[in-house]
Here is the input.
Amino acid sequence: MHPGEPVIQVDRLKRYYRVHHRRPGMWGALVSFFHREYTYVRAVDDISFSLEAGEIVGFLGPNGAGKTTTLKVLSGLLYPTAGRVSVLGFEPFRREKDFLKQITLVMGQKNQLIWDLPAADTFLLNKEIYEIPDDEYRATLAELDELLELGPLMTKQVRKLSLGERMKCELAAALLHRPRVLFLDEPTIGLDVTMQAKIREFIAEYNRRHGATILLTSHYMADVTALCERVIIIHHGRLIYDGPLQTLAERTAPYKVLTITFRSPVPREVLQNLGHVVQYEALRVTLHVPREETAKRAAQLLAQAQVEDVTIEDPPIEEVIATIFREKEAG
Amino acid sequence: MMRLWRKLAAILVVYWARALEYRIVILIWILATTVPLVMMGVWMQLASTGDIGGYSRGDFIAYYMANLLLLHLVSTWHGPELSRHIRQGELNPLLLKPFHPLWIYALRPLPTKPLRLPIFLPPIILVAWLVPGVHYDLRPITWLALGIAMAVAYAITFLAQTALALLAFWMAQAEPLIVLWFHLRMLFSGYLVPIALFPESVTRLLFWLPFRYTLSLPLEIITGKLPQGEWLPALGMGLAWVAFFYGVTWLLWRAGVRAYTAVGA
Amino acid sequence: MVEVVRRYGRLWWLFLLNSLAVELEYRAAMISESVLALSRLGWQLAGIWVFFVHRERIGTWTLWEAAVVLGLFIFFDGLIEAFFRPNMEAIIEHIRTGTLDFVLLKPVDAQFLATVRWVRFRHFGDMLAGMGLIAYALLRLRRTPPLWGLVSLWALMLAAAVILYSILLVLVTLAFWFVDVTNIIELVWSVYEAGRVPVDAFPDVVRVVLTFIIPIAFITTVPAEALLGRVTPTFASLSLFMATISLAISTGFWRYALRHYTSASS
Here is the structure.
């Protein structure tokens, strides 16, 4: 890899699966024995993007959008159907030793820790597998211990840990070899809110300290808003947005949200002329108004009614994304 | 009484459906029983130079072919599962049902039994028809005796294993005892070798022990190796063992459930 | 090269320590399995012994010669349970739950990491029982195995272990295509039962099948012949040849399956 070159480069990546269909029953089994019908599922269909060193990028999309498939191609678990992929200057699917030593994959729903033994045993094993020198291992472990507050967790059998505690150990085991690229697939899934926040803080701090490049998928928007300045959104295997999280709403949501508190009730009809009424209570109203006319409509409102308080916001990110997916589905 | 029958019939129907669901697994399970075939191969080779203990080459073939079928018809392997259920508290929901939980364990294997017939009967018929010297005793009276002997065999296997499994009410590890019973049964029930081929003192001792009545007796009857005059004493001894294990199981169950519900496990 | 061997040696040592630690979590099972090893030895030996109540020899084998074969059978049975079965179960579980990904992403050979990862020490009892039976049988035969016999015994036992490993590897690799192969493995595996007696105790047809089609003969009969000093060099080299071939085939199949896995799975 040359300095200044992106750490991850994906160029027109395609990944199709062949799925074989069979009609039910004995007859179907017989027919499909001689004549198999296949269809192709385009899990990833012609996407391109790149990540610079040290970036944390959120990778979003509904279930089955192709997120996990992309992560697997990037980590070398899947062979691309077409297109070029390069991570740290390696072709991932070759799974060269020098490549594997610099990356890690964490999957929130799967664990690599030895179930019946304390996590410390998995750590020692990974030390050997990744050929980590003694002093480096001690230093890394001390640091992970400090950041994740592992302490007594390391010496308890993994099967006796709670889900959150296990995730902490899981992260530690995956980071012992100080990987430069982290693929995190739903790292906070199933955890309670405080534990989610802790894991998030840890990821941010790890990135700050080591400048690791991180590609993260999550169902929890809070993860993404807290960690990622940039997001990549895919849907049905196609890339539909790649850019700053901040401008996502500007670019894709055609409206802003006005939340108004009135001093005295205002008839619904008056408000309907100003924008789309989403919520209508006695004194509190939420309106969606066209983005480019926000200022004009707000002024009209203030002129027409007795307003106690008004806020103008971009729609919440979850809603923006949900709207995007809905529109894509319809279109 | 009618009510009980209806419940039992319902259990049978449910597990019949399940057996159909798992038919491939069951088929493989059955086909994986190769030890009797291995033993048959060796005896056939040995008997090619003359009869052994009254068994000719054809007798050995008849014996082991019937062995494969009867073993699956009269056996259960529920012991380890029952003892695990007791230990892990999975017996609790069954205790709340309006019939004795042991009925479930006793009836559950039965619906899978007929599935064995289409697998084993054709080869047995074929062999009896084609291979010279392979004979079965097919008189009506033999079928009657065979039926009783098979019921006795199933009852002993079920009750003895249940009794050992019930020890799980008190012991952390009842499974090894059940496996030990399996080992003894394999050796002394005629599964491995016809018990008539043991030294005479062992064969005589086996009359008094339960193992013979768990498999060997029906085999001896259908292959015509047991003179008709000895049927009644043998069946009587088998029934005595059924009564014995029934008593033991009953006592263990009563004491066990009391201990179990007392600690509220 | 030396560096690689040392590295993998150290890793294997760690695997052993891990496995031992796991076993110590299940102490009761360890004790009861050891007791059961003895009772297993008992019924199997008694089953063979009945043949000799009626005949001097089975095939060309006397009682204690046949006991050597049974000893090897029990030893390899224990070896499979201790070294092969836990890994087999782990691989099937990895494929089923998708955790095989973690194995593939380690900078270590995946076949090594997946197939020698676990050892179930509780089955060492069977291996010891088998060894004990062999030693006792030799004592009864008043036979000190010839030096050549001992050397070829170790070579042949290694070959036998490699053949078993290869057969199991091929079977477990099928899990990449069929979700539940446990039952298929049980079915194929039941053929191993034929190894408890010398192959020439069977009728001729069976003997040929067990020598050349399903190579059970090379696992128990051939090493036993080595120990009794009557193995022919031809058979000994055939055994080593079979081991090499089967290892090559099974490793090739495993690699092919991994390629299929990384190009087909989701």
